[in-house]
Design a protein that fits this description.
Residues 1-21 form the signal peptide. It comes from Mariprofundus micogutta. The structure is a single chain. The chain has 59 residues and is mostly helical. The protein has a domain at 21-59. Helices cover 66% and strands 0% of the residues. The longest helix has 18 residues, at 2-19. It is elongated.
């Protein structure tokens, strides 16, 4: 039973860390670099160019 709760806790932490990146932040830029370009929306591409390529990170 403890293993189940531990696994659920780890999964919750992982999800919370991966989903909290604001578009244009350094974390978001890093996750977008790992995401296949075919899965990007046009807004993702524009935000990536504006913030990640040009270095205007959101703080």
């Amino acid at each position: 039973m403890k293993k189940v709760f531990s696994l659920m806790f780890v999964a919750l932490i992982a999800l919370s860390l991966s989903g909290c990146s604001e578009p244009g932040s350094k974390g978001w830029c890093e996750s977008m670099k790992d995401k296949p370009k075919a899965d990007w929306s046009s807004n993702d591409a524009a935000t990536f160019t504006k913030h990640c390529v040009l270095g205007n990170y959101v703080e």
